[in-house]
Amino acid sequence: xxxxxxxxxxxxxxxxxxxxxxxxxxxxxxxxxxxxxxxxxxxxxxxxxxxxxxxxxxxxxxxxxxxxxxxxxxxxxxxxxxxxxxxxxxxxxxxxxxxxxxxxxxxxxxxxxxxxxxxxxxxxxxxxxxxxxxxxxxxxxxxxxxxxxxxxxxxxxxxxxxxxxxxxxxxxxxxxxxxxxxxxxxxxxxxxxxxxxxxxxxxxxxxxxxxxxxxxxxxxxxxxxxxxxxxxxxxxxxxxxxxxxxxxxxxxxxxxxxxxxxxxxxxxxxxxxxxxxxxxxxxxxxxxxxxxxxxxxxxxxxxxxxxxxxxxxxxxxxxxxxxxxxxxxxxxxxxxxxxxxxxxxxxxxxxxxxxxxxxxxxxxxxxxxxxxxxxxxxxxxxxxxxxxxxxxxxxxxxxxxxxxxxxxxxxxxxxxxxxxx
Amino acid sequence: xxxxxxxxxxxxxxxxxxxxxxxxxxxxxxxxxxxxxxxxxxxxxxxxxxxxxxxxxxxxxxxxxxxxxxxxxxxxxxxxxxxxxxxxxxxxxxxxxxxxxxxxxxxxxxxxxxxxxxxxxxxxxxxxxxxxxxxxxxxxxxxxxxxxxxxxxxxxxxxxxxxxxxxxxxxxxxxxxxxxxxxxxxxxxxxxxxxxxxxxxxxxxxxxxxxxxxxxxxxxxxxxxxxxxxxxxxxxxxxxxxxxxxxxxxxxxxxxxxxxxxxxxxxxxxxxxxxxxxxxxxxxxxxxxxxxxxxxxxxxxxxxxxxxxxxxxxxxxxxxxxxxxxxxxxxxxxxxxxxxxxxxxxxxxxxxxxxxxxxxxxxxxxxxxxxxxxxxxxxxxxxxxxxxxxxxxxxxxxxxxxxxxxxxxxxxxxxxxxxxx
Lengths: 421, 421
Description:
The structure is a homodimer of 421-residue chains.
Chain A: H1 5-19, E1 20-21, E2 24-25, H2 32-45, E3 51-54, E4 60-64, E5 68-76, H3 90-104, E6 112-118, H4 132-138, H5 143-146, H6 157-163, E7 181-189, H7 194-198, E8 202-208, E9 210-219, E10 223-224, H8 236-254, E11 257-259, E12 263-266, E13 272-273, E14 276-285, H9 288-309, E15 312-321, E16 324-325, H10 328-342, E17 347-350, H11 355-361, E18 366-371, H12 387-409, H13 413-416
Parallel strand pairs in A: 5-6, 5-7, 7-18, 8-17
Antiparallel strand pairs in A: 1-2, 3-4, 4-6, 8-16, 8-18, 9-14, 9-15, 10-13, 11-14, 12-14
């Protein structure tokens, strides 16, 4: 049974028809629809000579035993955002399923064990905490912080998880699943416009960007739009507008991205100068020092603008994460795979985080492949990729798996085993 | 009984104690508290030799007969915004009351009739339609448009008005009240920072600014804050920020004001580039041509910014009014009055509209006096003015009334009667 990407396309459509409505995919983690998606996945896996188990964090592990217990792991997630797309997370899982089918049909078992993991709750749509299952496995999950979370319906996280066989306090025990992992491979839709702009079906992800996310609040003086001369205003929105334009310049100059996506003005009426304006600032860069420099420039700019506009400014951190570079050796292999399959390759950073960031943080050599997204759309029902590109992506993942197995089995195990933290 | 501004201060405090709570004044038009304020006012008026009547629009007219039926009108309004201040509108009414007391105590009746009008619903807090009573009297009220309005509680306007003895269809019949008016005088708190900045207690208002109020909507493309490179963004908020800063420059250069007070971004989350941003733009100028130029520059800027940012832009008119200049002769008299009382005077435009704008539009020579507001605050319980300034303002209004009566009675009536539209 050779690799057949058409099966993956058929699988994708079948799962979409089972778990979507007219507004899009509804496989939010820890809901019956998510459970139904996994039940369907288990049905597909039951046709293969594999072992399937759910770990302490709710991650679903499928193991195809190889000559060595050392394992190459392919990861994805069937959970979606509400009104989500048909590819995000699921493509990875179902492409991995097709790789398992191809391996299972071979005459001899692979030199290393091959595992497929369906991570639990990558999207964070239920509790507002992304990468829940993979962070439990990597060991970065702060259980004390997680304990305070509630579901979209206001139910405490531990009660929700328990219904799905997960004890919050024991989630990090899932770390054992990574003990034998010598490589982690993940295929994902790009969710951005870069590959489409370049006219390329596939790319190799060199790492995930570091993120600095803050709320920046300017405090001026609300005043009547008619009776307050321009030179006597302390306009909080004008200050925020200036900052938003400056951080954009910083990002262009520094090779990162910066986004002011949330803007709230008070009193927020046409006849009043804004006395108060809070904006979100999300800055990302693949390089740690460059990210720090962007943040420092934004802080300086906010102070200068505040002084010039005679308003106050206060920063409040929302979230941050360091850049996470992927494994140089696997990046090389991934590029070879893409070139073999599609002729050309492009290396790019991932702005969004993915489960691969967690495996990389756990010390498992990791890499990702991106397939072109149409119009860069994701997290919506319009999310799409060309069928021929999806087929190429399944082939590229399979080639990457094959090259990884070859490479890993040709060197002594002592040289390829990472020290897990 | 000579003029005694201390009585006005006592009246102001008495009314505030009757119709305010810990959040401020609650004399919203067409409510029991407003009715109570007017009942209290009628009580004060009952001590004077005057006639009091409510007209078809709900305006309360007090008439002190003079030697001629030709009348000088002093106007104010006891209605307030919710959680309003203790001076806005009421100062005018109660200063007028004190002028009537002074005149009533004189040995002879005044050469012309003197009238005090308490306009109904200046603030528009009940139906969202400012200057309701005065626009009915001036004839600018569009009854068909007004018929569609509802109260804050969702009750149709005609049902609410009927409870207060007003038939919507007959409101414009109140125009007859202006037939004998040869001058309209109004004292008001400035509600802005100009006089305080200049260190002056009083100023003369040369007219009300014209207003151009629009919603400007930029339409770009919502995109992931992490995966969308800066050069591929179509950021609707960035376009709005640029416009907001440009219109500010236009206002400074053109001698007007421009305010972006409402800002709405979609999707409005930290991790998404704004695909859509609508802002309000409120531009004001005392000069009609300058206002038109400011608007034209803003339109041009929005088009240029939209092109550069690769977003769409659409304008939607919200409201507009032409500048309304006050009467040059009355401005001269008002300035004399202020100089006599306070030594120095400043001429300024009013950004907010006032009932005087309606009387001016009706062809009645009109003018306003402003008294300094502390910190420019109004429409809030912190609204305040110094007691000594309030006292000076009552004296200035009384001097203006006296000068107007003198001037009007020294020329033949045929020369001072305006042609009413």
